[in-house]
């Protein structure tokens, strides 16, 4: 079955990480962090590096949002919800967009369990079809999911995404001939750490991806090369500063966190345009870069 979808004489897809971003959901600092008191109450339990400063976070987010607005015509907003945590700012994780509807995740981080249903309410209010939902004991988080092409999805097997969740995802997508490539990721820092597939892999064009090879499975890395990907290698000193978390808003047009000059230079040498935001409060402390801060819905082919 053809996986592309036509809207008003133009072709769009949800099955891409790099085409021009046309429609995206975000959740602002005001709606996710809410205030300084809430940050103080929640940051330790959620394993943040330190407590974000609310006012500084708001300023950082304004810059990030302005960078999105330069390219993305349709920015939609997740509302404040009382039963979710400050982690809900990383709205990619609670759902997956497909051409056949949104798949609601089941969070591997227990404190984030209410997020998918909160997003369901938003999608239904915006007349966005729900294709299905991952159910316990399956877990699946959007940060572990990346499209390689129109019909191939890479899914990380991690502490946040288990094999039962992956099998449920396969069952939801099998009627549409979508192939699931399972990528087994290492233990790294353990169950409490934020370590998703997109921590080590960010496609920025059909044949260009930012990677952190020391934590990349050999089979997956070889498969990317076989598919013709040129790999932009993130150096060791820029991995923890989120050099590998790169959001493509269009082919070779990227948004990144400040503090990764070697990776920025490598991307520019590969013909990319790179936009930078200071993300100490909204990204680095909580472990969620620009891909995590967005839930892309559709991209223009």
**Strand tally:** 17
- Unreliable runs, pLDDT <50, ≥5 residues? 5-9
The profile of the biggest β sheet is: 5 strands, mixed
How do the strands line up in the largest sheet? 1-2-17-3-4
Helical amount: 10-25%
Q: Indicate the radius of gyration in whole angstroms.
A: 18 Å
Shape: globular
Derived structural class: alpha/beta
SSE order in H/E notation?
EEEHHHEEEHEEEHEEEHEEEHEHE
Give average pLDDT, whole number: 95
Distance between the termini: 18 Å
* Discrete helix count: 8
Give the topology:
Elements: E1 5-7, E2 10-13, E3 20-26, H1 29-32, H2 36-42, H3 54-69, E4 74-77, E5 95-98, E6 101-104, H4 115-125, E7 130-133, E8 145-149, E9 152-157, H5 163-173, E10 179-184, E11 201-205, E12 208-211, H6 218-226, E13 230-233, E14 247-250, E15 253-257, H7 261-269, E16 273-277, H8 280-284, E17 294-300
Parallel strand pairs: 3-4, 6-7, 9-10, 12-13, 15-16
Antiparallel strand pairs: 1-2, 2-17, 3-17, 5-6, 8-9, 11-12, 14-15
